[in-house]
Amino acid sequence: MVKSILLVGVGGQGTILASKLLTTGLMEAGYDVKMSEIHGMSQRGGSVSSQVRYGEKVESPVIEVGGADILVSFEKMEALRWLKYLKPNGKVIVNNYQINSMPILSGKFDYPEGIIEELSSKVQTTVADAAKHAAELGNPKVMNVILLGATIKSMGLESLHWDKIVRDNVKEQFAELNLKALQVGMGLV
């Protein structure tokens, strides 16, 4: 059976790195894995999405509308934007984190209220305060690895060799920090 994970966020949040770590771990575990990513205007704070599909045999990297087993959103408004891609019985992991887009910063639109409540009323939702946990670890840049940890736990993938995967794919001086972040994320689920 093929499983589909959709990771979404805003440029600069580390969505692609989290996807690459996930993909590497799944491949090393022997799964057939397909990953596709869309950067959009990511350098300018635009939407970023990454699709990871894995199983015995994966035909396509693309997750169709209503096809994701799990939606991992690094920014809460992005969760609403991508919700239609979730299966009816799918799960959402949402970072309780707000990044104001240009239309909001310019005053043309207001940031929507009640996003977490709306998500929770529609689907099984895990809310992560990854920014708070990353600050406690001393580096706001590990929010992505915290969310990766929550994803790993939600998908039942804890038994893979994440210690080795992280050590092999992040700079040596940040390996311990990222391993702690991964554990924090797993503890959120």
Description:
- With 189 residues, the chain is an alpha/beta fold.
- The chain has a single domain, classed as 3-Layer(aba) Sandwich (Pyruvate-ferredoxin Oxidoreductase, domain 3).
- Helices cover 39% and strands 24% of the residues.
- The protein is built from eight helices and six strands.
- The protein has helices at residues 15-28, 76-82, 102-105, 115-122, 130-137, 143-154, 162-169, 175-187; strands spanning 3-10, 32-38, 47-55, 68-73, 86-95, 124-128.
- The protein has a six-stranded mixed beta sheet with strand order 2-3-1-4-5-6, with helices on both faces.
- Strand 4 (68-73), helix 2 (76-82) and strand 5 form a beta-alpha-beta unit.
- The mean pLDDT is 92.
CATH superfamily: Pyruvate-ferredoxin oxidoreductase, PFOR, domain III
Q: Beta-sheet strand percentage?
A: 15-25%
Give a quick account of the main beta sheet: strands, pairing sense, barrel closure. 6 strands, mixed
Task: Report the principal-axis shape.
Answer: globular
CATH architecture: 3-Layer(aba) Sandwich
Care to count the β-strands?
6
Task: For this entry, give a set of tags.
189 residues; alpha/beta; Pyruvate-ferredoxin Oxidoreductase, domain 3; 6 strands; 39% helix
